Amino acid sequence: METQIKTGGVLLAEPFMLDPNFKRSVVLLCDHSEEEGTVGFILNKPLEMPLNELVADFPEFEAQVYYGGPVSTNTIHYVHNAGDILDESIEVGRGVYWGGDFAKLKFLITSQLIRPENIRFFVGYSGWSPGQLADEMVYKSWIPAEMDSNYLFKSKPYSLWSQIMYNKGQLYSVIAQMPDDVCLN
Asked: 1 in a domain, yes or no?
């Protein structure tokens, strides 16, 4: 059975995608509808930027910041597993939440109720207008996969694409072993 594109799923960039924004990327889909389009965040492109330099008046917090995608790179977004205590969070999958009340987020961080292992911050996001992602799927630019919260909170970002590809099994486990630069093969 082929995995469908849906909120809470992930998209794996096909192995030969040349777009540097998405090469070997894993995108968590946080909102997907045929009428409104799609919003997601790249899970495996960490940035060397301290959060406190990006967000003014933010508590001291040692959380990793990621490149979420090429859209609105002047914005900060967050995905977490604290939806039961962070008001206005949107559940996108089992144990995975998007956004929430920013003032309360700062309070929960200061109170140490949200720790770095509970949240990921993203600069920008990945977005598709209505029909655009469906068109890209026709050209096999993306491989849909099921999301597991461990991918977000426990996996190493640099091996995540290969890990999820391998977990899909069959032909995908062979693709997972392909080097990033096929000239090295």
From this structure: no
Q: Among residues 162, 78, 178, 80, which one has the least CA distance to residue 121? A: 78
Going by the DSSP 8-state scheme, the letter that residue 93 receives in this structure is E
Q: How many domains does the chain have?
A: 1
Other beta carbons less than 10 A from residue 128's beta carbon: 21
Domain extent, residue 141, equals 10-184
Position 3 in a domain: no
120: amino acid identity, one letter:
R
Tens-of-pLDDT digits for all 185 residues of the chain?
Answer: 355 889 999 999 998 888 999 999 999 999 999 899 999 999 999 999 889 889 988 998 998 899 999 999 999 999 999 999 999 999 999 999 999 999 999 999 999 999 999 999 999 999 999 999 999 999 899 999 999 999 999 999 999 999 998 888 776 665 656 666 555 54
